Amino acid sequence: MHMSRWTRLASVAAIALALAPLAGAQSDAAMPPPIIPDENPMLPGQDILGKFLFWEEQVSFGNTMACGTCHIHEAGGSDPRSVSTINPGPDALFGTDDDIHGSAGVSRMTNAGDFTKNPLFGHAVQVTGRKSPPAINAWAFDEIFWDGRAPAAYTSVDTGAVVIPFFGALESQAAGPPVSDVEMTRIAHTWDDIEVKLVTVKPMALATNIPPEMQDFLSNHPTYPAMFEAVYGDPTITGDRITFAIGNYERTLISNQTPFDDFLVSGVIAPELEPGLAVFQVAGSCSSCHVFPFLDDGNFHNIGVRPDSEDIGRQAVTGNAADIAKFKTPGVRNAKLRTPLFHNGGMATVADLVDFYEAGGDFPGPNTDILLLPLVLTAQQKTDLVLFIEEGLTDPNVENNLGVFSRPTLRSELPSLNSEFGVASNNGLGQPPELIAGMPANLGHPNWLLGVADSTATTAALLALAYNPGDGSPYPDPRFPIPMNIDVSSLLLLVPATTDTDGYATAKMAIPTSTALTGFTFYGQWFIQDAGALATGGVYGSKGVSVELF
Question: pTM score, two decimals?
Answer without folding.
Answer: 0.94
